[in-house]
Amino acid sequence: MFFEPGLSCKGDEDATAYWFLFKEDKILILKDKVQFTLSELDSYKLSKNVLRSQYLDCVEGRSRYVAELNSDTVAPEGMSFYDLRHLLGQLPDNLFFSAGKAYQILHWDRTHQYCSQCGAQNENKIDERAKLCPSCGFINYPRVSPAIIVAITRGHEILLAQGSSFQAAFYSVLAGFVEPGETFEECVQREVEEEVGLKVKNIKYFASQPWPFPDSLMVGFTAEYAGGDISIDDMEILDAGWFTAEQLPLIPGSGSIARRLIDWFVQMEGFPSF
Ligand SMILES: [Zn+2]
Fold it and tell me: How far is the CA of 139 from the centre of ligand 1 (A)?
């Protein structure tokens, strides 16, 4: 993918630009198509419903934008508004994460209309992706909230837990938001201790994945058990335990970094990923 930084794309923008369209938190989808041209917007009679929009990026010479449609918008024939989260693993990854970026920027735009310092109406800054308060000069950048996610192993076992916020009864690796003043490694140690009462060692970076609902960046690690007995924080965790690769409980679907961490463990144990 050819990507140009900046806040505009050179060339014939309007004719070739792609638009991601949201109504509140849902994306407009036509089968597996989630980006539309301006002429399609016109032909579906959606242009008049655009509440706000933001430039996203320039990919292969095409500008991409995100727009929010007003809440009265009815999906045109054959199309529907859909919770983007449920399209993970359904859309090609690059399209899913592009749509996720669109959602994250739209959410930021919607929630930063006013200055958080003085309450005046913000303006889009012209030279970078930011909101500038014309009254007091305060600048707001799109927020990214880092969170660690960690696969803890003990010999031939992996620690998996069922979170109280999970939408389904699956077990996954532990995760939690980074606090101010904390390194990723400190966050891994604190979260593991808080959630399951264990100590870990040999914390190693694995991979990262944006999770734009609305603005997380999941930073994945592996770690080894170093001591303690499982003692769960029952506000956040319903159950936690050690599992071998042969006896895994229900785990998250493919596409998430949580699943990649579990697949890493399964492969390390000499099983093919599934
Ligand atoms: Zn202000």
Answer: 8
